[in-house]
Amino acid sequence: MEQGERDCCRIDHRMDFQQGLITTVHDYGLCGADPQAFRRQLKERPTALLLPCLMEEFRRPALQLIREVLAELDGLELLVIALAAESPEEVQQAKAFFAGMPFAVEVHWTNAPAVRELLQSMQSHGLDLLGPPGKGWAVWQGLGLACRRAEVVGLFDADIRTFSPAYPERMLRPLLDRSTGVAYVKAFYSRLSLETQALQGRATRLFVAPLLNSLEQLLGARPFLRYLQAFRYPLAGEFAFSTDLAMNLGIPCDWGLEIGLLSEVYRHVAISRIAQVDLGVFDHKHKPLGQGPTEGLQRMAAEILGTVLRGLMEHEGVALPPEQLPTLEVLYRRLGQDRVRQHGLDAAINHMPHDRHGEELAVRDFARLLRPAIAELVASPTVELLPSWSRVLSCRPHLQEELARAGSLPQLTVCAA
Questions:
Q1: CA distances from 194 to 14, 96, 278, 288 (A)
Q2: Cα 9 from chain centroid?
Q3: Contacting residues for 149 by C-beta, under 8 A, at least 6 apart
Q4: Which residues pair with 54 in a beta bridge?
Q5: DSSP per position, 307-323
Q6: Among the four 77, 156, 295, 383, which has the fewest Cβ within 10 Å?
Q7: Strand locations in 313-392, DSSP E?
Q8: Is residue 78 helix, strand or coil?
Q9: Which long-range contacts (CB under 8 A, 24 or more apart) does 127-135 make?
Q10: 406 within 8 A of 96, measured Cβ to Cβ
C-alpha cells in the first residue's frame, strides 16, 4: 500500500455511529467544512442568526472570534444582536463592532426605554411581555426581529471560545435542505476547558442525566422522558429552527430555558422532524456551583427540575407522588455518584484532570435541591411563558416592526458592506 493510501485509511474517529429516537448527525472527522456549498444554500433559503448578548461580551475575545468567523458568511440574510445595554452609547459601540459585515446586522437594544414602554402597552391586550431580563427575554425579542426576514433562524451564545466555521454550517444545513423535513436542530458537543482540558458541563452530566434516569425508574419509560434522554446535550444553548416553528413557540424566561424550549418543540413537532448535530469540542463561560440554592448552577438545577416535572404534567398527565420524593432523592444521589465515577474513569484514560471530590459535593448539593424545588412546584404548578409570536401578532399585527424601531437608535441598522 502506498503512503497516500495509508494516510487515507487513517480515520480520526471522534464519535460513534449510533442512532436513536432523535436523528443524530455525527462528526466523523473525515472532512472539514464546505464553505462554498454552504454559502450557496444560505442564498437559496433566507437565514438569520441570533446572538443574545451582554455588553460585557464585547470586552472578551470570544465575541471577536465569532465576528471573524461570521464575516465569511456572505450568504447570510441577517444577524440579530439582542443586546442588553445600559446606555445609547453602549449600543453605538456594539454597532461599530459589527460594522462592515457582508450582510445586514440589526443591533437590538432589548432593555431600551422605548422597548419597555412598547411591551408594557401590550398589557391592555392581557399579555405580559415584560419578562425578567435575561436570555429568554432576549431570545423572544430577537426571534420577533429575525422571523421578519428569514425562513431559518439559528441561535448561538456570544461567549463561545471555540467558535469555528463548522458550527453554523453543521447546525444550519439540516434546515437549509428542505428535503430533510427537519424543523428543529439542537447542538451537542464535548464541553472541555481550553486551559485545563477538564470536563465541564456539570449541570448536564451530574444533574440532568441522573435526574432523568431516576424519574424513568420511578415513573416508567414515559415518552417525554425518553425524548429528553435522547438528546446528548439537552442543556445546549445552540439550536436552530424553521421560522414557522419559531413563531409558534412559547419562550421560557428562567434558567429552564433550554429544557423548556425542548418541551415546547415536543408539543409542536413530530420527533421525526428533529435532529441533533455534533459540533465537536466546545468551550464557553463556566457557571460556578453557587453558595446556595439561589445562586449559580444550584439555582439553574432547581428551575430545570421544575421544568422537567411540569413537562411531565403537561405532556403525560403525570405528577410525582409525594411519597415518591424520598425514593427520588435516594435514586438521584446514587446515580449521580455513579456518574462521577464514570466520568472520572473517562477522564483518567484520556489523561484529563478530574476533581472527584468537587463533583461529589456538587451531587450532594443538587440532591438537597430536590425537596424545596418540588415544594415550590406544587405551590405554583403553572408558569407563564412569553407567548408565541403568532399569538401576539393575532392581536397586534405590526408589533415586530414596532419592536424593531423601539430597539434601534437612529441609523442603528448596519447595512452590508
A1: 18, 29, 18, 17
A2: 36
A3: 46, 48, 77, 78, 104
A4: 84
A5: HHHHHHHHHH-----GG
A6: 295
A7: none
A8: strand
A9: 127/387, 127/392, 127/395, 128/384, 129/386, 129/387, 129/392, 131/251, 131/253, 131/386, 132/253, 132/254, 133/84, 134/253, 134/254, 135/52, 135/237, 135/257
A10: no
From CA 112, how far away is CA 133, in angstroms rounded? 12
Give pairs for 221-229: CB < 8 Å, separation 24+: 222/312, 222/316, 222/318, 223/315, 223/316, 224/263, 224/266, 224/311, 224/312, 224/315, 224/316, 225/312, 226/21, 227/21, 227/22, 227/262, 227/266, 227/271, 228/259, 228/262, 228/308, 228/311
| Per-residue pLDDT band at 8 (split at 50, 70, 90) | very low
H helices of 193-256, where?
202, 209-219, 223-230, 243-246
Q: Which residue has the cell 453554523?
A: 168
What's the pTM value of the predicted model, to 2 decimals? 0.92
pLDDT digits (tens, 9 = 90+) for 176-222: 999 999 999 999 999 999 899 999 999 999 999 999 999 999 999 99
Beta-sheet strand order (sheet of 78-84)? 23-25, 274-282, 184-191, 239-242, 152-155, 47-54, 78-84, 104-109
The mean pLDDT value for 86-107 works out to: 96
Close Cβ partners of 52 (under 8 Å, ≥ 6 residues apart) = 82, 135, 138, 139, 142, 155, 157, 158
